[in-house]
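We store amino acids, tokens; thus:
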Amino acid sequence: MQFTRRLREPVMRGDVTCSVRIWRNPRVKVGGRYPMGPGAIEVTSIREIRLEDITPALARRSGFQGVVDLLKVAKHGAGERVYLVEFEYLGAAV
């Protein structure tokens, strides 16, 4: 799982613990560890949500200023399904 440059530090600090992704199919799995900086993130939950479920509060929790800001980054390829991915940063001890 990759993040835009501006989100990397907040993810590593633990300020951002979820991400909204628009994919054809899930590209991560619960329990999966994905490299991030000197450590990794571990996916703790993934579930499909509706586009209407993306609120300003969820956008801010994901590290964005608002829904429009999030949607500019969330879509990957030809995907149409919306996923909420929850994770934790494990740090360099991984």
About this structure: The first strand starts at residue 18 and ends at 23. Residues 5-93 form a domain with the Sulfate adenylyltransferase fold (CATH 3.10.400.10). The chain has three helices and four strands.
